[in-house]
Design brief:
Structural class: mainly alpha
Low-confidence stretches: none
Radius of gyration: 20 Å
Mean pLDDT: 93
Distance between the termini: 36 Å
Strand content: under 5%
Helix content: 55-70%
Shape: globular
Strand order of the largest sheet: 1-2
Number of domains: 1
Number of strands: 2
Order of helices and strands: HHHHHHHHHHEHHHEH
Number of helices: 14
Largest sheet: 2 strands, parallel
């Protein structure tokens, strides 16, 4: 996956790619590699589950920085908030999108949402462009208010680290190609956006299929801010698997089709999820808990489409 991301860009940066269509092909191939890094390398590494050696996890976690995001911010947003408060509005940052997307039945519904099942996919494709340009800085400001970053020198240091990594990534992925490639700068920018569109559409869709579907629940805390039930049951109620029989597909997306196992056992490498899933499914059955599972990727996409459509039509949606 690292080679799939880096090698096409190295070819572009030689300045020898005179064909515009080949330029786009190379950038799109790099987009598949970028998605592979996001799903199959950095995700496990930042969960400290890629290797038993924590230094290996640390360095492979930096592959997220290489593609323009930031490992430290992702750790807070994903490991801490998403895995602790799965599908809880406002607490889970993954279901707090811009106003034109509605991912929970508790979010205010606007008239534009009736079309979100059609236009959401376009914005999924742009999600990583937003991520590598603005979203990390927005999250840093938010997380500082939440106390994850200390005021003053420590925050400025973290901000500097984020900026330097982004400059390195943008220089390799965009600035150097603009300088070296024989095509006009705007063509290179379009190729860059096409790369991100492939990555954003793939990554966002895969993550959404695990949580924004009709079978999952969207718990609300009580007046004390407490969500009823234990953490493990909460993960089973709010998470879904899909396409469990396709080993090639599972390899390509870093085992993220086994989201239930990942949420229950985030410190275990994804290569073990398939075998663990039988134990988890049986245990859930013994305790009368759901084990949501779609037999294929296509059916899971269909369920997500259906959920987006229902969320766009109904104010108070019956879920679960």
């Amino acid at each position: 996956m690292l080679l799939t991301f880096v090698a096409p860009l190295l070819i572009v940066n030689t300045g020898m790619v005179e064909s515009t269509w080949l330029l786009f092909v190379l950038y799109i191939i790099s987009g598949f590699g970028m998605a592979g890094i996001g799903m199959g390398i950095m995700h496990d590494a930042i969960h400290n589950s890629y290797s038993k050696n924590q230094k290996v996890n640390q360095y492979l976690g930096y592959t997220l920085n290489l593609i323009g995001a930031n490992a430290g911010i992702w750790r807070i947003q994903h490991n801490v908030l998403h895995h602790t408060f799965t599908n809880i509005e406002e607490a889970d940052d993954d279901i707090n999108p811009p106003f034109f997307l509605r991912f929970t039945p508790h979010t205010k519904r606007y008239s534009i949402h009736k079309f979100q099942h059609l236009y959401s996919w376009f914005f999924y494709g742009l999600s990583t462009v937003s991520w590598v340009t603005a979203k990390d800085f927005v999250r840093m400001a938010k997380f500082k208010k939440m106390g994850f970053f200390k005021e003053g020198k420590e925050f400025r240091k973290q901000l500097s680290i984020v900026i330097v990594w982004k400059l390195v990534s943008f220089f390799f992925v965009l600035i150097l190609p603009i300088i070296m490639a024989p095509q006009a700068w705007w063509i290179v920018v379009l190729a860059f956006i096409s790369m991100h569109f492939v990555t954003g559409l793939m990554i966002t869709t895969i993550f959404q299929l695990a949580h924004i579907v009709p079978t999952t629940e969207y718990p609300l805390p009580d007046e004390k801010g407490i969500v009823q039930g234990d953490w493990a049951s909460h993960q089973l109620l709010t998470t879904a698997n899909f396409s469990p029989k396709s080993r090639l597909f599972s390899w390509f997306i870093g085992g993220l089709n086994y989201q239930i196992e990942h949420h229950l056992l985030p410190n275990i490498c994804h290569v073990h999820y398939r075998k663990i899933s039988h134990i988890v499914a049986q245990t859930a059955k013994e305790y009368g808990l759901p084990y949501h599972n779609q037999h294929s990727f296509v059916s899971a996409v269909g369920e997500h489409f259906k959920m987006l459509r229902e969320l766009g039509k109904v104010d108070k949606l019956r879920v679960g």
